[in-house]
Structures are given as C-alpha cells and as structure tokens.
Write a structure and sequence with these properties.
Layout lengths: L1 H8 L7 H12 L4 E2 H8 L3 H14 L2 E5 L7 E5 L1 H14 L5 H14 L1
Antiparallel strand pairs: 1-3, 2-3
Helix pairs in contact: 2-4, 3-4
Length: 113
C-alpha cells in the first residue's frame, strides 16, 4: 500500500491499465512496434491502441515515427520522457515488488509478444 501512496504523491499522470500495458510492451520488448502488432499482442483493436497512443503521445511518453523505407508504415517509438516516467514508476513501486514477481511478469510480457 505504501508503494501506491508514494506513486500517487509523485505527481505522475494516472495511466489506465491499457496505457501502462502499452508502455511496458514498447519499452520491454524488442521493436520495431506497429499499431497492428501492439493491438495483436494486447488482444485489442487498432483503434484502442490509437487512442492510448494519442494520450501517451500528448504526454511525450511514446511517439510515432514514419518508416523511411516505406512511408506508409508508422512505428511506435520510445522517448526519453517515457523512459523517465517508467524509471520513476519503478522507483516508487519497485521496492514493494519482489524480484521474483518482476521476473515472472517480465516473462509473461515477453511470452505474449
């Protein structure tokens, strides 16, 4: 409970579970990432990913980047601001989680990717 209180007091934006899952996928799994691929990995529609990306993009946590080889393709990319957010989140929440739980969760993320 203390970890959640620290996070609430940190002043960081409140992200939905979908937004946080999207952040974790992009930052913890190898890219490149596309809206289609992220939607598939999370088992949701492309519009759901697009809405989450709009919010995360406005916060500066993720950005869209055109594929130089094929301008029709758009990749979802990490940002320094997004990395700072996740680092802060880990500092606030991390101490409450055991290393074993974190390894298990990371394994689940990679398993579904």
């Amino acid at each position: 409970m203390e970890a959640l209180i620290r996070y609430v007091r940190s002043g960081q934006p409140d992200l939905t579970n979908r937004q946080m899952a999207l952040m974790m996928l992009v930052y913890l799994t190898p890219g490149p990432h596309t809206v289609r691929g992220l939607a598939h990995m999370l088992g949701v529609s492309k519009p759901v990913i697009t809405r989450a990306l709009n919010t995360l993009g406005a916060l500066g946590y993720l950005r869209r980047v055109r594929d130089e080889a094929d301008r029709r393709n758009v990749f979802v990319a990490k940002t320094p601001t997004g990395q700072d957010f996740l680092d802060s989140f880990e500092r606030n929440i991390g101490p409450a989680a055991s290393g074993r739980k974190q390894d298990k969760e990371r394994g689940l993320l990679l398993q579904h990717g």
